TrEMBL record, chain A:
Species classification: Eukaryota, Viridiplantae, Streptophyta, Embryophyta, Tracheophyta
Superkingdom in the source lineage: Eukaryota
Region feature (Disordered): 59-79
Name of this protein: Rab-GAP TBC domain-containing protein
SUPFAM superfamilies: Ypt/Rab-GAP domain of gyp1p
InterPro entries named among the record's database cross-references: Rab-GAP-TBC_dom (IPR000195), Rab-GAP_TBC_sf (IPR035969)
Composition-biased stretches (Polar residues): 65-75
UniProtKB/TrEMBL annotation, chain B:
Localization, UniProt: Endomembrane system
Compositional bias segments (type: Polar residues): 189-199
Designated name of the protein: (rape) hypothetical protein
GO molecular function, one term: GTPase activity
Species whose genome carries this gene: Brassica napus
Primary localization class, coarse: membrane
Chain intervals for the UniProt region annotation (Disordered): 189-221
Family assignment from sequence similarity: Belongs to the small GTPase superfamily. Rab family.
Lineage: superkingdom: Eukaryota
Amino acid sequence: MVRKKVPEWLNSTMWSAHPPPSSFNDDDGLLLHSPATKMKEEEESESISFASRLNFALPVPSPSPRQRNNDSNIISGVVPSGEDFSRQAHLSAELSKKMINMKELRSLALQSLPDSTGIRSTVWKLLLGYLPPERSLWSSELKQKRSQYKHYKDELLTSPSEITWRLVRSKGFDNYELKTGSRCMLSRSRITDEDHPLSLRKASIWNTYFQDTETIEQIDKDVKRTHPDIPFFSAGSSFARSNQESMKNILLVFAKLNQGIRYSHAEADAFFCFVELLKTSTVKQLDNSVVGIRSAITRLSQLVRKHDEELWRHLEITTKVNPQFYAFRWITLLLTQEFSFFDSLHIWDPLLSDPEGPLESLLGICCAMLVLVRKRLIAGDFTSNMKLLQHYPTTNISHLLSYTARLLSIFKAQICFF
Amino acid sequence: MAFHSEDDKSEDYLFKIVLIGDSAVGKSNLLARFARDEFYPNSKSTIGVEFQTQKMDINGKEIKAQIWDTAGQERFRAVTSAYYRGAVGALLVYDISRQQTFQSIGRWLNELHTHSDMNVVTILVGNKSDLKGIREVPTSEGKALAEAQGLFFMETSALDSSNVAAAFETVVKEIYNILSRKVMSSQELNKQDPASLSNGKKVVIPSEEQGESKKGGCCST
């Protein structure tokens, strides 16, 4: 099954509808009173966003030991510079406004966001449109979306046996076992009336469950293979296990809501941010028809040719390096595999800041990556160029991003970008 | 009868070899073990293609194997065709502990033959032979399939290294042998034409470079 368009459910008003304003509360793990965000444990632990756990860098009243460990793993070695501090102050000021100026926020994110402040988790939600610019709506918005996700999980991820039992209970058979007396006297007819694992009915929840197994297996495999080198994802600790569990739930709910796309690589807040991200442009690119990814690669090639004909000629004509051999991964994974995880976060800041979706900025960065190593590429043959581009050298990310900004402004001036 | 100059020791030959098969059968780890003697129990999925070159010594000749490790996932199938072009060898890998990956072999063979020369030297590789306790595909079944399809066959373990180098070497040796025979017979034919073929230049089986000649492979030189 192939879908080229954004599926219907992604466009549903549910994703963007603003609920009626409700009473203000600051328990959402957001910068509601920036910069000193309170991050109170909620009754439902999953309501603490996946993304904000990644950026758990604000002073937290009483972090649990595992969170503290995670902090030190993530932010160790990151010493904010003076410039970072001023940018951080600027961002904090922006985020504490009643009505966030999205244009301003986007331009701030363009140069990537400062670390160690917990700002990113809020800014990304705004950039992705998951949170509206009106701060007063945030808490009600989050409440609604989180309960929506909980509903999805209940509906889509509950095991058939659990559903059967709920059904039994709702029909007033609370004392089912007691009423039927000893186990050996279970009434046969009553059970066969219900749905069961051997049911041949198409609509059987068990049938659906078995069909899902393949997707579940694929997700399981992928989650296990996601950043095996980073403790957040796979340290064997209970913290990592619960993160993996959250990722699995997100991917499975997405896959089940969207059978047309089928499952492909990727809790409540993270789920909706993930949805928003796919809504922008990546849905098309990961589509099995691969129309999206092919055209993106072609456009990258055209960009390089327009900007640096000599480099383009040497790469594609002389050394016959098909851009697909390296750019497929660059583009489909939004550069996450080319740089360290934490550098990737900085690269994603400008990617998410584009209201048109990440593709333009992404192609700009890819083009800049090629131009920045042009000397080596021009001197290289097929083999050395393939190796260089498949193992892109460690790079100063802020230099890369400022170079990209320059490139993009040239492209826009030449109106050659589209 | 030498068909290359004796003093030109480096990179006399360049063979393009592709690693194909279902996802998570261990293609990347076979390559990691072969090229770097490394193994990663939880390696990342290959996205698109990963490229590696490895020098090998066959009968005293230095041969450069250009190995293309492809993504096994169904979802990337549509873009894999570019990776096969110009391949002269293939390792077709399944996981002996997962019957399903063995069932896919026919599909992979079709894929290979659609996108490359019919004469690609192919070895069927049953990987993860260390997982004896949960084996789902008997050795005899793998052997039978290989015989029926005219493929080489070997069971390997990237984890304990067994047969890994042997599998790659089998393919490279066979390509080399075919090439040697071809070159020799064409030399016989062209004895009276000294300008032809082997005037001391290295013989290269190009990979992507020869995209313009579809027949490409060693067996059609």
